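Per your request, structure below.
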């Protein structure tokens, strides 16, 4: 049994109780993914599984046998930041930076959700197809990722700029 993490095959832990978050941080030393609340409330542990965002603190590693996990370390190309990572720098989308990896992973998947037409609580037209990421859509869709420092304006600006074709 194996999981692909950032392009590398990794054995599934023998202990079925190991969370995906603990596998990433403790076993693989991929410490970009943060342990915030460890209860699924803050979003600091957000990673991508086959392109969809999940809270790794609530996931058991064995559940993801045969799946592809992408962490913040796996988003950019070799030697280059992902465009959203660069936009976070340019827009001061972080202060302490603790939530930043989860925010970025969540935003990457969120844009893909909107392009597929997955509605949010504030989506007006449920049959519109691809959804435009208005200010309200962005805030609603990112509401599961908390920033205790108050960098939300920079975060939203970075996302809107990076994915301008999807935003108003």
């Amino acid at each position: 049994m194996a999981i692909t993490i950032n392009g590398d095959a990794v054995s599934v832990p023998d202990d079925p109780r190991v969370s995906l978050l603990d596998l990433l941080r403790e076993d693989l030393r991929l410490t970009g993914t943060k342990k915030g609340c460890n209860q699924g409330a803050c979003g600091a542990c957000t990673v991508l599984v086959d392109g969809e965002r999940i809270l790794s603190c609530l996931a058991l590693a064995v559940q993801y046998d045969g799946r592809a996990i992408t962490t913040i370390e796996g988003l950019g190309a070799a030697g280059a930041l992902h465009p959203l990572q660069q936009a976070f720098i340019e827009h001061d989308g972080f202060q302490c930076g603790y939530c930043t990896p989860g925010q970025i992973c969540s935003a990457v998947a969120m844009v893909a959700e909107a392009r597929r037409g997955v509605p949010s609580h504030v989506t007006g037209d449920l049959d519109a197809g691809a959804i435009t990421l208005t200010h309200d859509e962005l805030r609603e869709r990112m509401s599961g990722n908390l920033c205790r420092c108050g960098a939300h304006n920079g975060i939203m600006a970075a996302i809107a700029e990076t994915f301008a074709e999807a935003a108003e």
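The beta strands are 2-5, 8-11, 46-49, 52-55, 68-70.

Regards,
D.
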